[in-house]
Amino acid sequence: MKIITVDIGKCNGCRLCELACSLRHVKEFNPAVARIQVIGFDELFCLPVTCFQCESPYCMEICPSGAITKGEAEGVRVSKEKCVGCKMCTLACPFGNIVFSLKEKAAIKCELCDGRPECVLFCPTGALDFREADTAMMYKKAALSEKIKEFMREQPS
């Protein structure tokens, strides 16, 4: 399966990925409804974050209506028709990569734009890539998420 990967050394924080995503999905330039979010860590670096397309998605396991499914090629998807708006999936995702959209009245997350992610296509620095997930890359993502959690714990409240 292919996933979106990030080279944080190339991300300049322009947030064009968020605009491209929101335009594709809700036909407006509104980063608040994008399926990708750029997190800035002071002046150190910016990190674009999307759904990790987990092997065993917690969001899918907890969904009481069966609105979240996982296919081999298309990844983890949310059926807006089946979503009951309970928001349990947003609580279950350890990375915060699924949110509830008041505008769409359903949970939303990156669904890889049917194999042609807008965020990757419009990234001017090449920080985003769409490629096959391999075990090494998944370990890198896990290690990066641990570093981010550690960084966040060290920040004053």
Q: Which CATH class of the largest domain applies here?
A: Alpha Beta
- C-alpha Rg (nearest Å): 15 Å
Strand content: 15-25%
Q: Please state the second-level CATH architecture of the largest domain.
A: 2-Layer Sandwich
User: How many individual β-strands?
Assistant: 8
Largest sheet: 2 strands, antiparallel
Categorize the overall geometry: globular
In percent, how helical is the residue content? 25-40%
Structural class, from secondary structure content? alpha+beta
User: Mean of residue pLDDT?
Assistant: 89
| Spatial separation of the terminal alpha carbons | 39 Å
Residue stretches low in confidence (pLDDT < 50, at least 5 long) are none
Counted up, domains total 2
Number of helices: 5
CATH fold label of the largest domain: Alpha-Beta Plaits
What can you see in these coordinates?
The protein is α+β, with helices and mostly antiparallel strands. It folds into two domains: 1-50 and 113-139, Alpha-Beta Plaits (2-Layer Sandwich); 55-109, Alpha-Beta Plaits (2-Layer Sandwich). It has helices at 16-26, 58-62, 88-92, 118-122, 135-154, and strands at residues 2-6, 37-41, 45-49, 68-71, 75-78, 98-101, 106-109, 128-132. The radius of gyration is 15 Å and the shape is globular. The relative contact order is 0.22.
